[in-house]
Every structure is written in structure tokens, then in C-alpha cells.
């Protein structure tokens, strides 16, 4: 009988612990039930009642996950909708060109129509690439990897990559400031892929709408690096500069030429925002032209 009080005490302690653990885990069980019965398309936050801090953290982590998933799903839906909408016109044009060529027995007409089809396909592919770049940029906030990037080396590689296209269009593409690489430090913490995307879009815009000269300029101070793309084309009126950094906004030259979809500068602006690099547009000089400048902080 001497052990009976100890047994009773242990039993009472076990019951007390069981009820305490069940009470503390009840919010977690409720969260599990809520998630189990939730529709797969419902990404709204779940209610997290104030309980133990550990349970609250689980609920907050679940809600943070829902926010990221919702952003990803919205980006994918926007991408799919944009592709479906924007490709309708070029695909219809390709079909019309093909039908005209098939209905005409002249080999010369076939060749002309095939060349036009190839050009239409190239524009459609470029549009899809731009839409995909914007969709990926909208999801890049949480996964952006910053690492040391040598802007002088990246600019040099970019110029070489676009040189053949520029020569084919009779455009003088070059760089200024690269020879100062030994005296100046052009290393910044950034994402090399995003900087390449910025330069690719700016050079592509300059080749389409600029003049006969495109220059990539680099300059550095002890605390920052400045990267600019300058052309001697017609430039952009100051009143239209902000609008052209919005999606689907197209300048009069692009409308007149029937080229582009108004996404190039929007991609540049979004990438610059992700890189936290201030972006500015200005007239290149007294004769006009356009200067697009980004400022990167060192370190």
C-alpha cells in the first residue's frame, strides 16, 4: 500500500500532462483540419489564434507560403493571358501569309511570303521571351542571388555579343570607360543575369529606334558605379519617359515601325527595381538621342 499514493500521483500527473498537451496542440489540430478541407485554389491567409508562440510561427510560415504561392500563380496567369492575347495577331498574320503563298503558283511569291513568315515568327518569339522575362522578374524578389559582378567584363562581353547584329544594321556599337578597369574598381554586388537582361533590352531598343551610334559607358567613384547606354537616335520626349517604363506602353517610333510590344523599358525598369539600382532617362545631348543610366552601389 505504500506505493499506492505514488501510483495515484503518477496517474494524476499523466492526466494533467495529457490534457495540457492536448490543449496546447488544439490550435495545431485546428490548423491541420482547416488546411485539409481548404480548396486548392484558395490561397487566402488562414486564421491563427493567439496561442503558444511556436504554433503562431507555424501559422505565420503557412501564410507567408500562401503569399508567395499566390504571387507565383498570379504571375503565371498573367503570363498565360498575355501570351494568348499578344500572340493572336502575329499568328493570324503568319496564317494569312501562308495562305496567300499557297494560293499563288509563283516561286518568287513563295520566297517573299516565307521571308515575311520568318520575320513574323522572330517578332513573336521576341515577344514571348519578353513576357517570360517579366513573369520571372515578378517572382524574383525572394530568390535574387547577389554576388560580386565586374561590370567592365560584363559590358565587354555584351558588346561582343551584339556586335554582329549592330554591324548588319550599320550601327556603330562600342563602349567607353572599359580601359579604366585597372585603375577603377567596377565590381558591384548584383545579379549578372539581370544586368545582362537590362543591357540586352536597351541595346535592342536602340538598334530598333536609335540612330547610328550606340555607346555603353562606365564610370566609378569610391562608393558607386554608373552604367549608361547612349544612342544618337530621336530620343524620347520627357513627358513620355515615365509612361514608356510601364508595360505595353509604346512610343510613336515603335508604333510607326510596327515593331515591339512596349515591354523593353518595362523589363529594364523592373530589373533595376530588383537590383535596387536607380534608373533614369535623359536626352543624350544637344542633338537629341537617349541616355539610359543606372547607378549601382558598391559593397
Description:
The chain is of the alpha+beta class and 299 residues long. It has three domains: 4-81, no CATH class; 87-139; 145-297, Histidine kinase-like ATPase, C-terminal domain (Heat Shock Protein 90). The chain is 59% helix and 15% strand. It is built from nine helices and seven strands. It has helices at residues 4-36, 53-86, 88-103, 107-138, 151-168, 192-209, 238-244, 252-257, 264-275, and strands at residues 147-150, 172-176, 187-190, 213-220, 224-231, 279-285, 288-297. The strands form two sheets. The protein has a five-stranded mixed sheet. The chain has a two-stranded antiparallel ribbon with strand order 1-3. α2 (53-86) packs antiparallel against α4. The protein starts with a helix and ends with a strand.
Q: What would you call the shape? A: elongated
Lateral arrangement of strands in the main beta sheet = 2-4-5-7-6
The overall pLDDT, averaged over residues, is 77
Class of secondary structure makeup: alpha+beta
Question: Largest sheet at a glance?
Answer: 5 strands, mixed
Task: Find the CATH topology of the largest domain.
Answer: Heat Shock Protein 90
- Given as residue ranges, the uncertain stretches (5+ residues, pLDDT < 50) are 247-261
| Tally of strands | 7
The succession of helices and strands, N to C, reads: HHHHEHEEHEEHHHEE
DSSP helical segment count: 9
Helix content: 55-70%
Q: Estimate the strand proportion.
A: 15-25%
- The N- and C-terminal alpha carbons lie at a distance of 76 Å
What is the CATH class designation of the largest domain? Alpha Beta
State the fourth-level CATH superfamily of the largest domain. Histidine kinase-like ATPase, C-terminal domain
Protein name: histidine kinase
Catalytic activity: ATP + protein L-histidine = ADP + protein N-phospho-L-histidine
GO molecular function, one term: ATP binding
Subcellular location: Membrane
Amino acid at each position: 500500500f505504500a506505493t499506492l499514493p505514488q501510483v495515484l500521483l503518477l496517474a494524476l500527473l499523466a492526466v494533467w500532462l495529457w490534457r495540457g498537451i492536448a490543449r496546447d496542440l488544439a490550435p495545431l489540430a485546428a490548423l491541420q483540419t482547416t488546411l485539409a478541407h481548404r480548396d486548392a485554389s484558395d490561397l487566402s491567409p488562414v486564421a491563427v489564434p493567439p496561442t503558444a508562440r511556436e504554433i503562431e510561427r507555424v501559422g505565420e510560415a503557412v501564410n507567408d507560403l500562401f503569399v508567395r504561392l499566390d504571387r507565383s500563380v498570379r504571375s503565371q496567369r498573367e503570363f498565360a493571358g498575355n501570351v494568348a492575347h499578344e500572340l493572336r495577331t502575329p499568328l493570324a498574320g503568319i496564317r494569312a501569309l501562308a495562305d496567300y503563298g499557297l494560293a499563288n503558283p509563283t516561286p518568287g511569291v513563295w520566297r517573299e511570303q516565307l521571308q515575311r513568315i520568318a520575320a513574323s515568327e522572330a517578332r513573336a518569339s521576341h515577344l514571348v521571351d519578353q513576357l517570360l522575362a517579366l513573369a520571372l522578374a515578378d517572382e524574383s524578389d525572394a530568390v535574387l542571388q547577389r554576388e560580386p559582378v565586374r561590370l567592365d567584363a560584363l559590358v565587354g562581353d555584351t558588346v561582343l555579343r551584339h556586335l554582329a547584329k549592330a554591324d548588319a544594321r550599320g550601327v556603330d556599337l562600342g563602349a567607353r570607360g572599359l580601359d579604366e578597369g585597372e585603375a577603377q574598381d567596377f565590381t558591384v554586388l548584383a545579379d549578372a543575369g539581370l544586368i545582362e537582361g537590362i543591357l540586352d533590352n536597351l541595346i535592342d531598343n536602340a538598334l530598333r529606334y536609335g540612330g547610328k551610334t550606340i555607346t555603353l559607358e562606365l564610370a566609378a567613384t569610391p562608393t558607386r558605379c554608373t552604367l549608361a547606354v547612349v544612342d544618337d537616335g530621336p530620343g524620347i520626349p520627357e513627358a513620355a519617359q515615365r509612361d514608356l517604363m510601364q508595360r505595353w506602353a509604346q512610343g510613336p517610333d515603335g508604333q510607326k515601325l510596327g515593331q515591339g510590344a512596349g515591354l523593353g523599358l518595362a523589363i529594364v525598369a523592373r530589373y533595376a527595381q530588383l537590383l535596387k539600382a536607380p534608373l533614369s532617362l535623359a536626352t543624350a545631348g544637344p542633338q537629341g538621342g537617349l541616355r539610359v543610366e543606372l547607378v549601382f552601389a558598391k559593397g
